[in-house]
Each structure stands twice: as structure tokens, then as C-alpha cells.
Design goal:
336 residues; 2 strands; single chain
């Protein structure tokens, strides 16, 4: 199994990296360039025209891995990875529609917030239903660090779970604001999932292959996305990635692992909420120089030092790695 996971990682990395050598120039040729938000840092305007929808690289890579290295497990009836993949692909499709609208209109506005929310909610409910139907998910919340479970009525658990999924997906989307950030923060998340799924044995083999493949695909994508980015993942990639992050948590039946594991995504989202709330409450004052928090650091918030994109990515990825280690130890006893 160890060899299979290593091969899944390497195959996805190589496939994403090789595909990018053809795909990124093609995106540039068809002028699939990203429009930059006016409210962002002024120096980000130089990135206008950078190809978007680069998330197709790691999406293609992990899909290929699931249907090759993971196929023997799927054939034996281990369908959890297939459910997570299809779930993530649906989120990626929502992101693709959003990216397409932006490209068509030549502006940074795609689908309406209402349309995206409703589509995401429908997909979340579908995943939860499938996982519950196949016995992968129960309405019992495993509490990380405490090693206990809390039973909830299904009428409470599943609506709550659906909104957690939608919130997580959008948190990953918010974090995708500078070169390499969302992908770099996500790598430790999927390494943690891979190690947990491997440690928990036969039932989770296909999920281990999925997360190992996505880790490799993200590294292959970072060849083109690390600063200075040759392409962005776009909503196609960030929504797929968000779907995979929460899909794995629910497929492993440890959704509360998202709290320690995705601390960076949570803090990025909270910074946005705090900014908007404070702005309205003080009639125009700002708590941060700019939200989400990575932009605050770019603008020299609090300490006056303007962090470079590479410095921010290194800091956030390092914190994410520490969170992944903590998350692993908080949940490793779940099935042991």
C-alpha cells in the first residue's frame, strides 16, 4: 500500500507538470486571462491577463490517479473516494461556470452569490446523502483531542453539515488570493488525510490514494502557480479544492477535524467577516488595511512591514503544516 501511495503521488505530480507545459500556453493563446479586482492591492494589477482555470491541472491528475491506482479498491466496493471525486468535480464545474462568466464578460464578476450558494448547497446535500446511504457517515460527531463522540439528531446534523461544507468550500476560495497560497496551504491538509487514511486501514485505502494523488497534483500545479504565477487555479480549481478538503473530512467521518486542520482557511474567512462587520458598525472605518488577512500583510498592516507574496505563502504553509500535525494527533485514535 505504501508503494501505491508513493506512485499515486508521483504519477499525479508528473501528469500535472507535463500537462501544464501544454495547457498553460494554450490558455495564454486563447486569452483566458484573469481580470484583477479593483479593490485589491494596486501592484496586483500587473497580473491582469495571467491565464486562469489552471486548477484543471490537479483536477485531471487526481482523476487519473483515482481511476488507475484507486480502481482496484473501487472495483472491490470502496466507493468513498469516487464519491469525494465526483463531489469535488461538481464543485469544480460550478467554479468553471463562474470563471467562464468572468472571461465572457471580461470582468471579475461571474455567477451571482445567490446562484453559487444554491448550487453548492445542492451538491453538499447530495454528497451527505450518498455517504450516509453507503454507511461512511453517521450523525455522530467525533470530537478531536477529546476522543469522544456526540450523537446528534439527523434533522440537526445534516443541515449543519451541509452549511459546514459550503462554508469550507468558500473559505478555500477566499484564501486563493496570491500566487501559490491556496495550493501551498492545502498540501499539508491532504498529507494529513493521506497519513490518517493509511493508518486506519483497509476501509479507507481508496481515500488514501485520492489524497496522495491530489497532493502530487498540487505540487505539479505549483510549478506554474508559485510566484510569479504563470497561471491561476481560478474558481474551477479553488472550488474543486474546497470540495475535496471537506469531502475527505466527511468521508472519513471526522468533520470536526476541519477546525484544527483548516485553521488558515478559517482565519482568512474570519478576517473578511470582521472587516465587513467593523466597516458597517463604524460607518466606514477598517479593522484591517485590506481583507482577507493575506492582503493585510501585503499592505504592511500592524507592524508596518509589507510582506512579499513568497513570505506570506511560506508563513501560511508553515502554520498549515503545524495544524496538520496537530490534527493528525487529534484524530488518529478515531478507528484504532
Amino acid at each position: 500500500m505504501t508503494l501505491r501511495l508513493v506512485m499515486s503521488f508521483l504519477a499525479a505530480f508528473v501528469l500535472a507538470a507535463l500537462l501544464g507545459a501544454v495547457y498553460v500556453p494554450w490558455l495564454r493563446k486563447i486569452k483566458a486571462g484573469q481580470e484583477i479586482k479593483e479593490i485589491g492591492p494596486n501592484w496586483h494589477k500587473s497580473k491582469a491577463g495571467t491565464p486562469t482555470m489552471g486548477g484543471v491541472l490537479f483536477i485531471t491528475a487526481v482523476t487519473a490517479v483515482v481511476f488507475s491506482f484507486g480502481f482496484p479498491f473501487i472495483r472491490e466496493g470502496e466507493l468513498a473516494a469516487l464519491f469525494v471525486l465526483v463531489f469535488s468535480l461538481f464543485y469544480g464545474a460550478i467554479g468553471f461556470l463562474d470563471d467562464y462568466e468572468k472571461l465572457k464578460k471580461k470582468q471579475n464578476l461571474g455567477l451571482s452569490a445567490r446562484a453559487k450558494f444554491l448550487l453548492q448547497l445542492v451538491v453538499a446535500v447530495a454528497l451527505l446523502y450518498l455517504l450516509r446511504l453507503e454507511g461512511y457517515l453517521s450523525p455522530s460527531l467525533y470530537v478531536p483531542f477529546w476522543g469522544t463522540t456526540v450523537d446528534l439528531p439527523e434533522i440537526v446534523y445534516f443541515p449543519l453539515a451541509a452549511f459546514i461544507i459550503v462554508g469550507t468550500v468558500n473559505a478555500v476560495n477566499i484564501t486563493d488570493g496570491i500566487d501559490g497560497l491556496a495550493a501551498s496551504v492545502s498540501v499539508p491538509v491532504f498529507v494529513c488525510y493521506t497519513v490518517l487514511a493509511f493508518a486506519w486501514g483497509v476501509k479507507f485505502r481508496s481515500l488514501a490514494v485520492f489524497s496522495a494523488g491530489l497532493t502530487g497534483g498540487l505540487f505539479g500545479f505549483l510549478v506554474y502557480n508559485f510566484h510569479p504565477a504563470k497561471c491561476f487555479m481560478g474558481d474551477t480549481g479553488s472550488l474543486f479544492l474546497g470540495g475535496a478538503v471537506c469531502g475527505m473530512a466527511f468521508a472519513l467521518d471526522v468533520p470536526l477535524i476541519l477546525i484544527p486542520l483548516c485553521l488558515i482557511f478559517i482565519l482568512e474567512t474570519l478576517s473578511d467577516i470582521i472587516q465587513v462587520t467593523y466597516f458597517k458598525a463604524t460607518h466606514g472605518k477598517r479593522f484591517f488595511k485590506m481583507a482577507p488577512f493575506h492582503h493585510h500583510l501585503e499592505m504592511g498592516g500592524w507592524l508596518g512591514h509589507k510582506w512579499s507574496e513568497v513570505q506570506i505563502v511560506s508563513l501560511f504553509a508553515g502554520i498549515s503544516l503545524l495544524c496538520a500535525v496537530a490534527a493528525y494527533f487529534s484524530c488518529v485514535g478515531r478507528y484504532v
